[in-house]
Q: What sequence folds into this?
């Protein structure tokens, strides 16, 4: 049955606690269920997203709709996706008056984003998410791989996850996701978010990351798949030299050596020494092989 919800009271942790208790819901840490309970921070996230009145927002992880309501005030429509069936009746009640919001009960990672959007009959123009730590990187890659042509992603993530996403070559945390994200867009940390802004409070600090997609895209469509394969092979065996790490993908160590020579890259280098532009050049050379 649909609970009665006072949407205006959602910023009061005591109200949310009672609402969840009435539905016998215990929030799951495993799903990163820390809800934003600070109106100013929610407004800050919306400002970071720089929404236009005609935007279609895809919100990943709607929770009980705190951020969704704020996004809905600034966009033409919102597709809000939430994995936890237990929260859906509450979220539905919160969002019910907002006819331009569609709540979808789904695991965002379960199917290609294009399929989800096709089912909703709308293509998003921007992505906004307050993400659980454990799916930050998979979600970022899921969005990049979808090739939806969105203008930006605005992600509230754990501070350490943000550091990894924006890491440059040679910096701690630089890896496959950072390479692919830098080639997708320009990431920028917009604002810190203190643990006290969430209910329940997490142990970690968070921040809002805004990534503006490169326009035109830096990765031509035909290079997307080879780029992904090269980046993942290179970083999955990050202690190996590129010559060895790419041997399986190229068919032999000699073929890997030839590829690296064609891309003017040192075969003795390791993945972490290559810039995103180096990887893109490598993908071009890989695709050009006869
Ligand atoms: N947007 C709300 C807010 O800002 O208060 C909730 C954010 S909470 C940090 C993350 C939400 O993502 C949780 O409600 C969780 O159930 C949901 N979630 C976790 N994994 C998910 C997945 N794979 N697909 C969709 N939603 C997911």
A:
């Amino acid at each position: 049955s649909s609970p009665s919800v006072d949407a205006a009271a959602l910023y009061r942790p005591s109200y949310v606690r009672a609402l969840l208790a009435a539905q016998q819901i215990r929030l799951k840490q495993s799903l990163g269920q820390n809800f934003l309970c600070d109106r100013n921070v929610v407004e800050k996230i919306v400002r970071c997203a720089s929404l236009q009145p005609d935007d279609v927002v895809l919100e990943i992880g709607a929770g009980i709709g705190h951020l969704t309501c704020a996004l809905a005030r600034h966009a033409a429509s919102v597709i809000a996706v939430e994995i936890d069936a237990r929260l859906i009746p509450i979220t539905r009640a919160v969002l019910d008056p907002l006819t331009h919001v569609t709540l979808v009960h789904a695991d965002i990672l379960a199917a290609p984003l294009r399929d989800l959007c096709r089912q909703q009959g709308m293509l998003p123009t921007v992505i906004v998410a307050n993400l659980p730590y454990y799916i930050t990187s998979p979600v970022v890659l899921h969005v990049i791989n979808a090739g939806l042509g969105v203008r930006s992603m605005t992600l509230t993530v754990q501070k350490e996850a943000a550091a990894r996403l924006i890491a440059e070559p040679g910096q701690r945390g630089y890896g496959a996701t950072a390479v692919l994200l830098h080639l997708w867009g320009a990431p920028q940390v917009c604002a810190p978010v203190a643990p006290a802004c969430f209910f329940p409070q997490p142990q970690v600090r968070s921040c809002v990351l805004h990534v503006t997609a490169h326009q035109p895209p830096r990765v031509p469509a035909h290079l997307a798949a080879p780029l992904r394969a090269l980046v993942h092979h290179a970083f999955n065996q990050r202690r190996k030299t590129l010559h060895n790490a790419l041997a399986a993908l190229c068919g032999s160590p000699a073929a890997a050596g030839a590829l690296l020579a064609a891309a003017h890259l040192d075969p003795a280098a390791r993945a972490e020494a290559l810039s995103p532009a180096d990887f893109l050049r490598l993908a071009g050379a890989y695709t050009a092989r006869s």
Q: What stands out?
A: The mean pLDDT is 96. Residues 31-36, 60-63, 66-67, 81-84, 107-109, 130, 132, 135 surround S-adenosylmethionine (CB under 6 Å).
